Automatic annotation (TrEMBL):
Residues 476-514 are annotated as: Disordered. It comes from the Eukaryota. The chain crosses the membrane at residues 7-31, 435-464. This is Scavenger receptor class B, member 2a. InterPro entries: CD36_fam, LimpII. The keyword Transmembrane helix applies.
Length: 514
């Protein structure tokens, strides 16, 4: 056997083995199963996990952008007209949210943590100085007092109204952005404090929220089931809430939005418990996106999250008392926040009933600026980019005994909205791209084997064809036809015997005589 033949046989054997092994690995998905199994074990909230440190001290910068609605026609509104507002902002703050008092429970299957948040003003990302800029907005303490007095005798309310008017307090107030956000000493609350010492005389939308936490959380680490990774087990010792009117509405579902389980599917719903909204919400897949070279799935709250119970009966539990429901796109949260009739929605009443949008001039809801969404890397479940947008509103309506409200048309009045944003930093994005490249190469290794087998198959075909061509050419030149005619220029003797007509690679030889 020649060297060429050996090379052909060897190439054929290697090619066959590569194709058989590669196809078998592709069909069995051995490497993909191995990677998935590894991810399920590694992506946990245990101390040995690589994800634990980024969960405990998030490297991704979080920014809070506050926008306010400045009321431009308060007198017209109090006279029964439509309110007109102008958006002011943003006033941006960098949010820091480290996990503290981290304690593992039940053999590492659960972890306890506090999540205090602190805020630092970022002037270069802001539209003005919050300590200088002044806005006119609803006097929430005054509205809270009116709402509280609804349960008092009708004869009490006019006297209280007269006393409040004598203090120069009105339904609308003018304050700096800093005061409205971080607190000021309210004259009405100061008077009430004399009668009820438990009442705080300071008011602010973010009063006592700088450097404090939203409660005590216990999370599942994912050690037992990767699908439970990051899910909330208890909040302030509770596994369910009590202020809504149905068991389903009172459930504490999902994570706190910081982490999600790996291997996310487009068809699943993701749940987040929002302590500031006093409820859990779900997000559905929207589209594939790319963030800093990383492929991600975008999830967003679907229209049914804040839909009217008539269209989505599962939301009936958020009507308190039962049957007392608002329209689509708004949620009354005063049941879990004592005081004023506070209502939350998406900014500019995005996805809400047009009646709320048309009740106030100056609103312009749109998806690009007002949608809440979350971009997740599906393999690891890591949030790549997030935008949480929520608007704070208050119900203004006529209150018997308060003459200043007698002409008011009931309105869900916008106060402000916040845009909480976070995007993966460049270093983390680079590490993520490297990790995903490695995972891609490993998971596609069987395809590389099949590809190499196909290349060798092509080489085998070429070698075989060339070998056949050379063999055919050799057969054609191995037998040489020799003419049996004498050369015309020479004559043979008559008595010379004839010579054989054709010979193979030999000169003719005369016949031997016996």
């Amino acid at each position: 056997m020649t060297r060429r033949s050996c090379a052909i046989y060897a190439t054929g054997i290697v090619c066959a083995h590569l194709l058989i092994v590669g196809i078998a690995l592709v069909v069995a998905q051995v490497f993909q199963t191995m990677i998935n199994s590894r991810l399920k074990k590694e992506i946990t909230l245990t101390e040995k996990s690589q994800m634990f440190e980024s969960w405990k001290n998030p490297p991704v910068p979080v920014y809070m952008e506050y926008y306010f609605f400045n009321v431009t026609n308060p007198e017209e509104f109090l006279a029964g007209g439509k309110a007109s507002v102008k958006q002011i902002g943003p006033y941006t703050y960098r949010e820091y949210r480290p996990r503290e008092n981290v304690t593992f429970l039940e053999n590492g299957t659960k972890v306890y943590a506090l999540n205090p948040k602190s805020f630092v003003f970022v002037p270069e990302k802001s539209a003005g100085d919050p300590e200088v800029d002044i806005i006119r907005t609803v006097n929430i303490p005054f509205v809270a007092v009116m709402n509280e007095l609804n349960s008092y005798s009708f004869y009490v309310r006019p006297m209280v109204s007269m006393y409040i008017s004598s203090l120069g307090i009105d339904i609308f107030m003018t304050r700096t952005v800093h005061e409205i956000l971080w607190g000021f000493k309210d004259p009405l609350l100061s008077k009430i404090r004399r009668l009820k010492p438990e009442v705080d005389e300071y008011f602010g939308l973010m009063w006592k929220k700088n450097g404090t936490h939203e409660g005590e959380f216990v999370f599942h680490t994912g050690e037992q089931n990767y699908l439970d990774y990051g899910k909330i087990d208890t909040w302030n010792g509770l596994r369910k809430m009590s202020w809504w009117s149905s068991n389903q509405s009172n459930m504490i579902n999902g994570t706190d939005g910081a982490v999600f389980h790996p291997l996310i599917d487009r068809n699943e719903l993701l749940y987040i418990f929002a302590a500031d909204l006093c409820r859990s919400i779900h997000l559905a897949y929207v589209e594939d996106v790319e963030v800093k070279g990383i492929q991600a799935y975008r999830f967003a709250p679907p229209n049914d999250v804040l839909m009217n119970p008539k269209e989505n009966p599962t939301n009936a539990g958020f009507c308190v008392p039962a049957g007392d429901c608002l329209g689509t796109g708004v949620l009354k949260v005063s049941v879990c926040r004592e005081g004023a009739p506070i209502v939350v929605s998406f900014p500019h009443f995005y996805q809400a009933d047009p009646a709320y949008i048309n009740a106030v001039d100056g609103l312009n809801p749109n998806k690009e600026e007002h949608e809440t969404y979350l971009d997740l890397q599906p393999t690891t479940g890591v949030p790549i980019r997030a935008c949480k947008r929520a608007q704070l509103n208050i119900i203004l309506k006529r209150v018997p005994g308060f003459p200043k409200t007698k002409l008011i048309n009931e309105t869900v009045f916008p106060i402000m909205f916040v845009n909480e944003t976070a995007t993966i930093d460049d270093d983390s994005a680079s590490q993520m791209r490297t990790l995903l490249l490695i995972l891609t190469l490993v998971s596609n290794f069987p395809l590389l084997i099949v590809g190499l087998g196909i290349i060798l198959l092509l080489v085998l075909v070429v070698l075989f064809c060339r070998n056949r061509q050379k063999k055919t050419a050799k057969d054609d030149t191995a037998y040489t036809q020799v003419s049996d005619k004498l050369d015309d220029s020479s004559e043979k003797p008559a008595n010379q015997p004839m010579k054989n007509g054709s010979y193979i690679a030999m000169s003719p030889v005369e016949a031997q005589k016996c």
